[in-house]
UniProtKB/TrEMBL annotation:
InterPro entries associated with the record: FN3_dom (IPR003961), FN3_sf (IPR036116), Ig-like_fold (IPR013783)
Name the UniProt record assigns to this protein: Fibronectin type-III domain-containing protein
Amino acid sequence: MNKPRIITGFDRYRNTELDVKAKFIVDSMTGNPNFDMPLPPLADITAATTAYIEALSNAEGGGKSQIAIKDKARLQLEGLLNKLALYVEAYGKSDEVVLLSSGFSLAKTVTPVGVLPKPDGFTVQPKEKGTINLKLSAIRGANSYLFEYRVLGDEAWIISVQSKSSLSLTNLQSGSQYEFRVAGIGSATTRIYSDEVRSFVL
């Protein structure tokens, strides 16, 4: 499983959201036994937050100089928060609960699914002349599906990769018997196929 990690980079926050997030982090880390000596000190974060709030207020309806001061104050606050995030990750021991207690947001972890299971519910249904519909139950973790078919007795399989768990085959040889199989495609390279199913084409 991937280790939990803090989301760094605070430019995704709107101007009116950044100070709220900064205050939440300071409140969460104040007296937090998991982080007894924060770097930078929380007092520095609080001072930068106060300066940013003041600059943000002055920039509303202000001129270019006030906006420039606000932008500078924001960059300073973001820089301090990013440094604090590095401290939290260093002392968070890759413990999700401990990291969350800091007030920082965590990135979503992706757990590899591994080898996909054998397909279930694979059905082959002849339709009108030269047409057969293939269908199976969706496989959790499958990005797409590898359908294979061939005329009974042939060695080579004809391959069709589909994003959905169903496929309609057309222009098949009427009166011929085919065999079909399917496998899910995921992150692993190993493929586990369904049982082969045979059917005559109308």
